[in-house]
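A quick aside before the break. I want you to see a complete sequence-to-structure record at least once, exactly as it would be stored in a machine-readable document. Don't worry about memorizing anything.
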Amino acid sequence: SNQINITITNNNQSHKPSKGAFKQEKSKDEMKEILELFGHEIFTQAYSKALKNGMEKNFSYIRLLCEEILKSSLVIKKSENCDYIQSNWVQFLSWASEKLTKSSYQLLSKIEPIIDGEIIYIENNLPKILKEIILKYFDEYGNHSTTIVFSKEKENEIRF
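That is the input. The structure line, written in tokens, reads:
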């Protein structure tokens, strides 16, 4: 009798990616998410720091570095803005020394404004005319949107 041996091989196995390939794909997603969230510049700074520390594959560490870089850049911007508002106040006093009476200037020069971002808090009890002069000056000469808050007024906030 003739015997025929038939061997069937299945070369169509569904190819399952290895765990390493899955992890690599997840890493790409995490990197992309961090990049989209913080932007290229911050991500690059964070990644190079992580690389120096041998932690370039630790994305939670890179994310933390990105957050720190972002916070420090915001603090710098806020203090630069405060410096700008402070210089506006100094310019105002200089203007007042030339344009107002000596007694008015003396009252204004005693003010110790509290500057918080774009807000100038003035706690002194000033005559209404001096409050109006301050508001008018910052309205006309202030080239920044500044809020003046007089603490002993019913209408506390006046915006430009």
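Two observations worth writing down. The mean pLDDT is 76. The chain is about 60% helix and 10% strand. We'll return to this after the break.
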